[in-house]
Amino acid sequence: MILMAEVNWILYVVILAYLLVTLYLGYRGWKTTKDSEGYLVAGRKAHPYIMAMSYGATFISTSAIVGFGGTAGLFGMGLLWLTFFNIFVGIFIAFVVYGKRARKMGHNLKAMTFPELLGRRFDSRFIQWASGLVIFLGMPLYASVVLIGAARFMETTLSIDFDLALFIYSVIIAGYVIWGGLRAVMYTDAMQGTIMFVGMLLLLIMTYSHLGGIVPAHQALTNMAHMVPSSLAAQGHLGWTSMPAWGSPWSWTMISTIVLGVGIGALAMPQMAVRFMTVRSNRELNRGVLIGGIFILMMTGVAFTVGALSNVFFLQNQGNISINMAQGNADSIIPLYINAATPEWFVYLFMLTLLAAAMSTSSSQFHTQGSAIGRDVYETLTGKKGSQSVFITRIGIIVAVIVAVILGYILPDNIIARGTAIFFGLCASAFLPMYTLGLYWKGTTKAGAIAGLLTGTLVTVFWYLFIHKAEAVPLGVAKMLLGRDLLIEQMPWPVVDPILVALPLALIVTLVVSLITRKPEERHLKGCFKGIR
Amino acid sequence: MLGIDDPWIWGVYLLCVLSALLCVVYGIIYWNREGELEALEIKETAAWEESAEEMQEKELGL
Question: Which of A55, A58, A141, A163 has its CA 20 to 30 A from that of A271?
């Protein structure tokens, strides 16, 4: 991604100042953290602004802005369905329906990680370590796409070597996450989220004013429908302000992977769900809903609208559509647009916005992976609970950073949006059934939860290896074992996302097994649901 | 509507804004509610911390 070739000293000063503030906030987090509760759940005393901005900034990475924003440049405003899901499901439902109960139950059970909440709710050590393992093994893909995106960005904007960029970025984040724990992560997230908000708000205003206002801008995009390239039209593309043709490959990808996978997956993302346990009371979550809703509208709402409208800009100024300007690489659309359409000072601000978006997501990913392997897997399996939590989690974070960096060198190009969607989908299928039923149905049993966890995880992995074309073909496992690329070649199965199959199956299995197995003890349930109406 | 012909697209454009508004209205209405348990929970946490410290002292002989 090339934002600009020449590097201005102002940019260095701005980024240096930003990094100093980040490190200072990390230091503040470290100073005020004295125990594992402080390190893992920020002492359960986070301010609602810090909590909501941290939740939002963790949610939104460069992948959402540049990756999915570029996809909107390619396919149009239909992606706004994802924004709607992000706000309504990812914020409103997540905070009001899930967050309040998760917070109270987390408090009742003294849980400090998302797997620990699930494990203690079902009185099962297996659930805790197996969930921790799913997170630790599934997250590196998501973590490394964010990491590599950020390092590539530093390479091109600051003209420094990629390896050095990767090293500096990883060391800075690892530094404040390892020492400062979740407090440092959340303080820096809130600052980074604020930068992101300002950057995206200005981008929206500039784009609409440049194109003559909201309605003229949309109308110009609607009038471009005849310019859709034939290769995209064959996939169901009917114009940038139209939904794709129903049943076409693109409609399946958009609806099943992007909108449902990423939209619903947000509910069961461990690095976001743990945020609910960082506040004192549900009042903070009520306030957080307000902040989070506006924040997400400004993030993906703006990225997808501007991404689609970039076509109008490029047509008016350079006589071509965005994807042709980007030479076929959708990931380049947003950076190209920013460079071409906005003044120089904004290019710097937008660079900072992207760096902030990447860092806020990376830091939470490393913290979550560290606590997953340290507290949830190692401590649960060895039985050494309590005294060494912080130390083991720190080691876990170092392992997570190293794994993400190594994986970053191996991963192919064009994996940013896909890598994100895979992890969101996996979390939804593995955790969402037991998380939902665990919070709302006292009849959910330990066996039911375990069966659902295994079904969701295994069906997702199976689907990626044998059915879903985008992963099964490059991975080659089906080819090796079956002698053909896919188990089922007939449409639409190769483009149906695993979440559409794995999530309902896992939910049914959890329900059925819970109905036929021994109910949990009343005393245990009383402890879990204390104070929950 | 809004320069967009497809109702699924202008519809979702409005839905995005309306859902963000829902969050705002909800936040304002419930701004000061559900903080009642705060004091009790802080007491509970303090008690756990005390017992955890005692346990650690016993286990580690500190």
Answer: A163
Q: Does the beta carbon of A48 lie under 8 angstroms from any beta carbon of chain B? A: no
Please give, rounded to a whole number of angstroms, the shortest distance from the CA of A296 to a CA of chain B: 8
Looking at beta carbons, which residues of chain B come within 8 Å of A289?
A: 23, 26-27, 30
Report helix, strand or coil for A3.
coil
| Dist. CA A82–CA A250, nearest whole Å | 14
Pick from A45, A47, A84 the residue to mutate for testing the B interface (most B CBs within 10 Å). Answer: A84
**Distance, CA of A262 to CA of A267 (rounded, Å):** 9
A71 touching chain B per CB within 8 A: no
Q: What is the dihedral angle through the alpha carbons of A183, A189, A194, A198, rounded to the nearest 10 degrees? A: 170
Q: What is residue A373's three-state secondary structure?
A: helix
The pLDDT tens digits for A318-370 are 999 999 998 888 888 998 999 899 998 898 899 899 999 999 999 999 999 99
Segment A85-118, tens digit of pLDDT: 999 999 999 999 999 999 999 999 999 999 999 9
Tokens 């994986």, residue? A407
Q: Is A523 exposed, middle or buried (0-12, 13-18, 19+ CB in 10 A)?
A: exposed
Q: Which residues of A touch B9 (CB under 8 A)?
A: 76-78, 80, 241-243
Q: What is the pTM of this model?
A: 0.91
A414 has pLDDT over 80 = no
Q: Cβ contacts (< 8 Å) between A97 and chain B: which residues? A: none
List all residues of chain A from 268 to 297 with a beta carbon under 8 Å from chain B. Answer: 280-294, 296-297
pLDDT tier, A261 (very low <50, low <70, confident <90, very high otherwise):
confident
- A234–B contact, CB cutoff 8 A: no
pLDDT band at A74 (very low <50, low <70, confident <90, very high): very high
Of A100, A222, A297, the CB nearest to B5: A222
The reported pLDDT for the residue numbered A183 is 93
- A-chain residues within 8 Å CB-CB of B6? 239, 241-243
pLDDT for res B52: 67
Instruction: Tell me how crowded residue B55 is: count the other CB atoms within 10 A of its CB.
Output: 12
A388 has a chain B CB within 8 A of its CB: no
The residue length of chain A stands at 533
Q: Which of A100, A107, A218 sits opposite B4 (nearest CB)?
A: A218
* Long-range residue pairs from B40-46, CB within 8 A, at least 24 positions apart, any chain: B41/A107, B41/A280, B41/A281, B42/A280, B44/A107, B45/A37, B45/A44, B45/A107
CB neighbours of residue A208 within 10 Å:
18
Mean of pLDDT over chain A:
90
Complex ipTM: 0.89
CA separation for the pair A350, A147 (Å, rounded): 18
Closest in A77, A217, A283 to B9, CB measured: A77
- Predicted confidence at residue A112, as pLDDT, reads 92
Q: What is the mean pLDDT of residues A374-391?
A: 81
Cα A484 from Cα B17, distance rounded (Å): 46
Name, in order, each residue with C-beta under 8 angstroms of A359's C-beta and a sequence gap of 6 or more.
A22, A150, A169, A172, A173, A188, A192
